[in-house]
Amino acid sequence: MSANPAANTKPPKNQVLNEADWSAPTAPRTALVKRLRDKGIRSEAVLSAMLRVPRERFIDEALWSRAYQDDALPIGHGQTISQPFVVARMIEAILPSGSASTGRFGKILEVGTGCGYQAAVLAQLADEVYSIERIKALYDKARANLRPLRIPNVRLAYGDGYQGLPDAAPFDAIIVAAAAPDLPQALVQQLKRGGKMIIPVGQSEAGAAQQLKLIDKRGMTVIEKQLDLVRFVPMLGGLVK
After folding, report:
1. Which domain CATH number covers 134?
2. Domain-embedded: residue 6
3. What angle do CA 87, 231, 222 make, to 5 degrees?
4. Which residue segment(s) compose the domain that 206 sits in?
5. Interatomic CA distance for residues 168 and 26, integer angstroms
């Protein structure tokens, strides 16, 4: 039996996938979700979302045998697809209050689209997903990865994540997939009252860990809560063409 998690499921090039072709649980995805539950992820909504999304479709075919390991993997341009546990942990932390099992975001912003995987997971949990990427080649890759899945509620933008998307604000939640040296105030301003943001904060020297922070915007007050130590690529400003 092949160890390839997508064995016998790879579509011909340019074939549009129907939702039933990609969202049905597979054995590797089911095993990953069990590991995430064993590691402490409690939200059935988050686990169900991750069960639906084919992670192998967002990485190079050479890495397919590792698609459902709980590891970060390279996606080119010095970037990575995040470890599944970290994806689940971050999304779970910002779910609307009282919605751990059935909750849904209205409008969410992802900073750092990368290959598009986390946006696809968020799309299972939100009415609208906005995702911004500063590296044009990754923006194009994410579009190509998402297009065959025909997910209608994801909107990608090529731009500077530090600036966010003010024209689409305010957001119910913001999730940042790179480590900022300080809390970006432009993103805080784009949270609606009662909104939450999760972001790794700290320097990104080799081997250094950052502090995962949960930001809770309550009226004019911003409450910061420290969560786990994590390791992310640095959040940089400007555009890469």
Report:
1. 3.40.50.150
2. no
3. 70
4. 19-230
5. 35
pTM of the model: 0.90
State how far the Cα of 188 lies from the Cα of 171, in Å rounded to an integer.
Answer: 10
Active-site residue, selected from the candidate residues 43, 82, 131, 204: 82
Q: Is residue 178 a contact partner of residue 111, using CB atoms and an 8 Å limit?
A: yes
Q: Is the pLDDT of residue 141 over 60?
A: yes
Active site residue 82: yes
Segment 33-47, tens digit of pLDDT = 999 999 999 999 999
Q: What is the pLDDT of residue 205?
A: 72
CA-to-CA distance for 111 and 191, rounded, in angstroms? 13
Give the C-alpha distances (Å, rounded to integers) separating 206 from 70, 177, 182, 203.
Answer: 21, 17, 18, 9
CA of 228: how far to CAs of 27, 52, 120, in Å?
A: 29, 26, 24
